[in-house]
Amino acid sequence: MTQWQSYLPVIALALAGTFSLIAAVAALRWRAVPGARPLAICSLATALWSFGYAFELSASTLPTALGWATLQYVGIVIVPGSWLVFTARYTHRDTWLSRQIVLLLCILPTITVLAVATNTFHRLFWVSYTLIPQGGRMLLDVEHGPLFWVHASYSYICLLTGSVYLLRMISASPALYRGRLGALLVALAAPWVGNALYLLNLSPFGALDLTPLAFSVSFIAITWSIIRLRLFNLIPLARGAVIEQMSDSVAVIDAFDHVIDMNTAALRSLGRARHDVIGKPARQVFARWPEPLDRYRQMLHVDEELQLQEDDGAHWYNVRISPLMDDQGHMRGRLVVSRDITLEKQALAALVAAKEAAEAASKAKSAFLANMSHELRTPLSTVLGYAQLMRMELDGGAHDKLPTYLASVELAGDHLLRLINNLLQIARIEATGVDLEIETIAVTELIAEVVTMVRPLVDRKANTLRVTHDDVLSEITTDRVKLRQILFNLLDNASKFTEQGEISLQVQREPGMEQDWLTFVVSDTGVGISDEELPLLFNVFTEPDVLKRRRFGGTGIGLALSRQLCHQLGGEIIAGPPSTKGSTFTVRLPSTFGVHAQVADGERVTI
Amino acid sequence: MIRVLLIEDDPPNREMLTLYLTSQGYAVTTATNGGEGLQLAAQLAPDLILLDMGLPVMDGWAMVSALRADPQLAHLLVIALTAYAMEGDREHCLAAGCNDYCSKPIDFSDLRAKIHALIQAKPEAFSR
Alpha helix locations (H) across A278-401? Predict the structure, then answer.
């Protein structure tokens, strides 16, 4: 054997030590990542082991060799424990790893180091040791004592546990990280292989312990994956955490429709434990929803919104299914992700409703303004027209027509005032509701009051007013002022659109189940209302379509108000039937207000 | 004498306008809705129609459209007299076929000027 060959183990160990140091530095750069710190400690310990071993091999006397061997043990005892901690942290199986446990893990290595250092006194670690020449150099040959086997057992347990962690992680990870997993497999297998070669005396260097070299191979693999494949890349860790923590339900179903994984959200929504669903058939796990389950059975791609009945009502879900393919393009299973979008749906619906309401309100407001402008300009036009006529009269030195003109101005002014009052009353009802003063009044008395009020308007166009009523009208319990107002508005309209005709007011008492009703029918022989106009009549203020605007000659406000008042009094107002030979309005009120407690809200006029 | 057809459903306005137009020397005929107005327009072929737009039965827009669609009546001059005085109402009336537009309350000098402008622009209409 040549001189060069005899240096080979030393060079190999020195290289191994150097790589371990590099691995330690590399791990420390990622020290924020779980497992990086124990990995750095493990690599440093291996470096110490390797260098110590290299020096031991270079030693020519027994005490020197023993000294280096003792020093090595400081590294050797740290390696298994730190390896275990590294694998546990890295594979997220570290819930048991408290500070106390870590301290416990340190006890045996400490005893071992002490035992090695004091071996000359008790020989419980090494029973005997001697230097034997081998391969051109002196090799320390030892016979192991009981404490060594305690240490060895501890080491194998640590190594085995760490290997199990890595294996489980490898088997649970998708193929995507194959390169990284390859590196992990090397890291996992190398110490075992090295140790096995040593124990089976298959070492190319004879009695040389290959374990530190093997650990160095591990660290080279890990360092390589740190640098090339980013072993500590946050992405795989983050992906796992994201899936676990996300509020969406995630389930993995294999090609045979068995559930093989499920995140916490999915388990929570099913109300089941993990062990209760993993490996179970999908139709059993999702038995609550047979319909979508049947439909999805053959589907590889789904992205749809689905409504399901839950204990607390209907829920909306966004369900996405995508196939999981292997490298050969075979479907190995399916990924099912579902998200509860009930709140989003509700919020969206509320937004749409709010938007539509706002638009409708805006349209109604514009329509109201346009109609208001129209309603007020009409009588104002009369007032200012007569004012201009009077000015012309006066300019021409004549006075004889002035009284007629003035009377017309007054009449138009009165009309304008009523319009404004009605309008203000509508606005007030809209804002605060109506205050009713309910009293019991004789119907005939009320009719007389209304006739007195409306008489001048009727007479002005040479119309006749005919009032007919049953003999048994007796009394009505309602708001006197409001009812008078309703009837006056209707008679006012009738007399406005009728000339030399007849305006009639018919009052009847209708027996009812719980109480009697009184109907007041106001009809005229005037212009009439077409069937086209009829539905618009009471909504003249909210009708936004300019083409459909019809003139009701200032009656719009009066009719809208009358209807509101009728509703407030628990009754209704009906227009029609359509006719060109005059118009008819029927007011129907309960004889006693409040019997049904049905103060209808009415169809409000929006202002 | 210039013959004017006044179509207006609001009685006080109709009376007031009739008084004014008569005082200006026009021969005034009145109607209270678009249908009646259309009938009278065909019968009388008036020199000028003063048309309220918001009318019952047949409104001013429908009436002026019918007028323009009828070859016998299409040439008749129409001025809209309307309480629709919001933005766009004038254009809406002109688009329907009115020759001019006066908003209520009516300013007589404004109305007179518009009538005269139409007479000058189309004197043949007033030749009879």
Answer: 282-285, 290-296, 342-395
With CA atoms as reference, report the closest residue to A433 among A565, A261, A240.
Answer: A565
- Which of A551, A552, A557, A583 has the highest number of chain B CBs within 10 A, making it the mutation to test binding with B? A551
Q: Is the separation of the CB atoms in B61 and B96 below 8 Å?
A: yes
Q: Determine the 3-state secondary structure of A273 from DSSP.
A: coil
The three-class DSSP label of residue A332 is strand
Residue the block writes with tokens 């007849």: A502
Predicted local distance difference test score (pLDDT) of residue B128: 45
Q: How confident is the model at residue A550 (pLDDT cuts 50, 70, 90)?
A: very low
Q: How do residues A417-446 score in pLDDT, each as one tens digit?
A: 888 888 888 777 777 777 788 888 888 888
A283 burial via Cβ count (<10 Å: 0-12, 13-18, 19+): middle
Complex ipTM value: 0.91
Report the Cα–Cα distance between both ends of chain A, in Å, rounded. Answer: 110
Q: What is the pLDDT of residue A357?
A: 87
Chain B residue with minimum CA distance to A495: B11
Residue entry with tokens 């493990």 = A42
Compute the nearest-CA separation of A378 from chain B (Å): 6
Tell me the pairing of strands A438-442 and A475-479. antiparallel
Return the CA Rg of chain B: 13
Specify the pTM: 0.51
pLDDT value at residue A60:
81
CB contact under 8 A, A383 and B17: no
CB B16 within 8 A of CB A409: no
Alpha-carbon distance of A107 to A327, in angstroms, equals 47
Closest CA to A235 of A183, A171, A162, A180: A180
Half-sphere exposure of A295 (CA within 13 A, CB side): 11
